[in-house]
Every structure is written in C-alpha cells, then in structure tokens.
Amino acid sequence: MRRLKRGALGVMWALGGVLISVLMWELVKWLGGVISLPMNTSDSAMPHVWTMIGGVGQPEVRGSETTVLEAVVAASAYSLLIALGGFIIGVSVGLLLAIVMQRFAFMERGLLPFVIASQTVPLIALAPLITGIGNRISVGPVQWNTTYSVMFIAAYLAFFPLSVGALRGLQAPTATALELMRSYAATERAILFKLRFPASLPYLVPAMKVSAAAAVVGTVVAEISTGVKGGIGRLIVEYAREATAQPAKVYVAVFGAICMGLIAAAIVTALDVYLTRNLPKESRA
Amino acid sequence: MSIEPTGEATTTEVAVRAEGVWKVFNPGLANEVTALQEIDLTVTRGEFVSLIGPSGCGKSTLLRVIADLTHATQGAIQVAGMTAAQAREDQRYGMAFQQAALFDWRTVRRNVELPLELQGWSKDKRRVRAMELLEMVQLADFAEHRPWELSGGMQQRVAIARSLAVDPPLLLMDEPFGALDEMTRERMQNELLRIREETGKSIIFVTHSIPEAVYLSDRVVVMSARPGRITDVISVNLGQRNEDTREAEVFFESVTAVREALRGRTSGAVRSRVGEV
B91 CA to chain A: closest CA distance, Å? Predict the structure, then answer.
C-alpha cells in the first residue's frame, strides 16, 4: 500500500515537472512579446508547445506518406540500437580493463593514465579519424560500415566511466574478506567471481548509468560529425535546416532524442534492480 | 606426508607448534619493525589457548603466521603435523575475525556453504552440512535470511559456523567478539565453549580482554610489544565453566595473574615461565 502511494507520488512529481517546464516555456515566449529579451522568442524559433504537439502528426515533407512522428521514432530506434551496441562493447572493454588493472598493479599504473587521457581527445577530432581509418578496413567480404564508426565512438565514451567504476568496485572488498578467501586457499579466479564481482556491484551499477548516458550522447554527436544517415542525430540537423518552414519539427526530433535517452536509462535501471536484488537497501545505487 | 604417529606419541597430540618464529616487517629499511621475536609455542590437541597483550604486541601477526596468511621471517610453524602452507591448502584450520565478513549478497546458509563450495562439494551435501552447523549455532531459522538482517552477535555466530564448515581440527580466532556489547559477548563465550565441547576443536583465540581470555582458556599466552614476544604463559584451571565461574574466587585470581603478567610484574599466582611449557 505504501509502495503504491509512493509510486503514485513519483508519477505526480514527474508530471508536475513536465507541467512546470511547459509553463516556463510559454512564460518566456509571452514575456518576449511584452519586453525585450536577449533571445528570439518568435514562433519560428520558439513554437508554442501545442504547435510542437501538432507537429507530430504532420507529414515529414509536403506530400510525403510518413509523418514526422514516424520518422522520429524510426530514427530514434535506429540510434538506440547503435547506442546499445556501443554500450555493450564499452561495458565489456571497460570491465576487461578493470579486471586487468585490478589483477596487476603495474597495469593500473601503466594503463590508467592512458584511459584518462583517452577521454581528453575531443570527439569532433576523433570522429573523422575513426571514419577515415575504419573505411579502409575490410575483413574478407565484410566491409567497414560508417555506422560501425558511430558505434565505436559510443563505445569509446562508454568504456571510461565503467572501467574506472569497476576498478574501484573490484578493489572494494575489505582486507578481512580477502584474508578469509586466502584462508580457504581460494584461487584468483574464485576470488574474482565469488568476492570481487559481487562486491563491485554497488560501484558498477552507477558506472553503468553514466556509461549508458555517454553511449547515447556519443551516438547522437557521432552521427552528426560522421554524417551517418538514418539516426536521430542526423535528423535533428536536417530538421533544423527546415526550421523556418516547419519550426515544430526540430523540437519533435529533440524530444525523440530525449525519449531515447530515457529508454536507455530505463534499461539500465532494470538491470540495476536485477543485479542488486540481494543487497541491503542502503548500498544500492 | 604422514600425520599418523610413528613411535612418537606426541605428533598427533600437537595441534600447533611454533619454534623460534620471527617476523620482521620492512627488514633493512628505516621503518623496520620486529613484530615477533623468537616465539616458541606449542598448542596440544583440544587445547584452548588465548593470546593477549597490548596493541602492537604481534598477537594477530602470530595468528596470521600460523594461518599462513603471512610468512615468518625465520623459524618453523607446524599445524596438524604439516607446514602452515600445507595446512592452509588442506583446510586444516578455520578462521574467524573481528568483522564477521559475511557476504551481503549471499543468504546466511550460502555464507556457511562458501568454504565447501570452494572445496567443490556438491550442492546437496553443502546444504545438509550448512544446516547442521546453523543448527549448532542455533540459527537454523535464519538460514534464508540475508546477513545484514541479523544482529552483530548472530552474524558472528554465522561466521563461527562458517569456520567450522570443513570440520577443521583447529580454529584460529582473531578478536571475534571484539565488536560486541558485553552481554552478547558473554553469551557468545558460553556458546563457543559449548561448541568446543561438542566438537573437540583446538582453538587459538586472540583477545584484548583479560576476563575473556581467562574464562575461555586452558592457557593464556601473555605478549609484550616492541618487539613482540611471549613474556608469560599462565595456566587457568577453572574446570567446567558455568555462570558462577565468572564470580568465583579462582577466576579473579587468574584474572589478577594475567593482569600482573601484562604489567610485567611477578606474583605468587598460578603460572609457569615460558621455558617450562
């Protein structure tokens, strides 16, 4: 009963948040007509919320069969799949790196600076580089696809928070717990699977949340900078160009990107609930 | 490796033997510390021996050397007739720490099963053995609970059950009741003596508490710090312990003897010099 009440309260807060955002938007628009604001509040730059909602059902271009909504949903799904691929690769690589760094102290000293340095490379500089190198790769009949570049960039952004979080997690077991395992003459493998992994979950799960967000943002940005078609990143750019004719369209695309991020977050949260089901509440992420 | 006595009757009677054990941390460096100096100690089978002394006297280090969790710089350790390393590999001892160190993600039963799992026991056999042990520590009803749902004393009982899982002949306990309140502590002491009676284990018990050492032990090994060494070994003869024991004259005499030994004074109480044991 209490859980139900809390759930209902959560929904109310969420709806309240949306409502406040809508009111703020309209307030700024209205103010722009009364006093002079340092931004363009005209209908072409800041369409009314109801115009945006109406824009959902419009045909994508004059006379086309597909509506804006259909186009945005398709593009978001496409990007979400790429982001998911990048996330899975990033998590695997990050976890592997963390295990290696935990196991060999010299690896941590040698590898960690590179891991950190990798994140200081600007994405804009990286994207053409990866596309350029990637396009020259072909293994037998399999030719590099530019979407692989996007996935690679998403993975590149996703692995970092995960490897750092996982490393901390793998190092989390207390000296006593480790001595206990040593007293059982446990192998390194047994210590990893029966102690370090489970103990790392409270660190791993929040790291996964950050990684998922990084993969989504990485996908959208990489789509724009590599010019890959079909994804939501590209769609936002295209719709932005047509903003004078159909100002609502670009916002619909932005909301598509937001929904994609929310779905990614929901997937990770479900994973979180599953992984930490046996842990005390306070140590849950 | 034969552990059966061959002529020498004492071989099986000895649970632990330390001879001339030294432990030096950071040897040759500016921060060199002699944690253990020339330790000689023999624990006979079924004996309950406490190690007591001020912080830094090396009592925990000595326990760790016996457990092969750290290596002696010099000297020989024998556990159940084999080297400390072999004894660890063969699971000839069980260990309990001040922190119960139960794994949050496992149920109480599966915590007790952990050492059996590592030994490759089958699921069914593990379960039966774990329930048997939880029965012994009177926590069978909590088998499917999570450790964090249990009180500190209950957690420590689970840890003791876990240390008994592979049925080792020796228990090494490092201040297992150190974090418990006084009442729980006394209950746990009685519980430990009962388990010892039921199982006939040899026990080496590290503690800070003089009454605890006296109440539990056949012998109390008194250590002093910097360098860590054994200064006295005091025999305690309290017979069968019960609630009256804690208020008995002979109990207080032994407490006094240990206290004075810790202060480095000699007195007329029951005791024997190191060389005699």
Answer: 7
Chain A CB contacts of B165 under 8 Å are none
Alpha-carbon span A116 to A107, nearest angstrom: 14
| Closest Cα in chain B to A193 | B118
Q: What pLDDT does residue A57 have?
A: 80
Give residue A80's pLDDT.
Answer: 94
State the smallest CA–CA distance between residue B255 and chain A in angstroms. Answer: 30
**B169: pLDDT strictly greater than 70:** yes
> In chain A, whose CA is at the least distance from the CA of B176?
A176
Residue B173 has pLDDT above 60, yes or no: yes
Residue spans of chain A under pLDDT 50 = 284-285
CA distance B134 to B144: 11
Nearest residue to B21 via CA among B76, B87, B80, B81: B76
Alpha carbon distance B134, B157 (integer Å):
9
> Quick one: A78 and A150 in the same domain?
yes
Residue A113: the pLDDT is 87
**In angstroms, what CA-CA distances link B154 with B138, B143, B233?**
9, 11, 32
Q: What is the mean pLDDT of residues B195-222?
A: 94
Q: Is B88 helix (H, G, I), strand (E, B) or coil?
A: helix
Q: Do B118 and A190 touch (CB under 8 A)?
A: yes
Which of B103, B110, B155, B167 is the mutation pick for testing A, counting most A CBs within 10 A?
B103
CA dist A227 and A118 (Å) reads: 23
CATH 3.30.70.580 assigned to B10-92+169-276: no
B83 at interface of A, judged by CB pairs closer than 8 A: no
Q: Which residue shows structure tokens 């329930």?
A: B131
Q: Which residue has the tokens 């004719």?
A: A245
Report the residue from A184, A190, A278 with minimal CB separation from B91: A184
Domain-located, residue A51: no
CA dihedral in degrees (A203, A204, A207, A212; nearest 10)?
Answer: -160
B77 and B18 in contact (C-beta within 8 Å)? yes
B91:A185 CB<8 A: yes
Summarised one tens digit per residue, pLDDT across range B24-74 is: 999 888 888 889 999 999 999 999 999 999 988 899 999 999 999 999 999
Q: Does B8 touch chain A (CB under 8 A)?
A: no
Cβ–Cβ under 8 Å, residues A260 and A79: yes
CB contact under 8 A, A184 and B118: yes
Q: How many CB atoms neighbour CB B25 within 10 A?
A: 14
- As given in the structure block, the two tokens for residue B218 are 């056949």
- Find the CB nearest B118 among A174, A186, A199: A186
Q: Give residue-wise pLDDT tens across range B90-113.
A: 999 999 999 999 999 999 999 999
Cα Rg, chain A, nearest whole Å: 23
Shared-domain flag, residues A96 and A135: yes
> Structurally, how many domains does chain A consist of?
2
Domain of A27 in residue numbering reads as 1-41
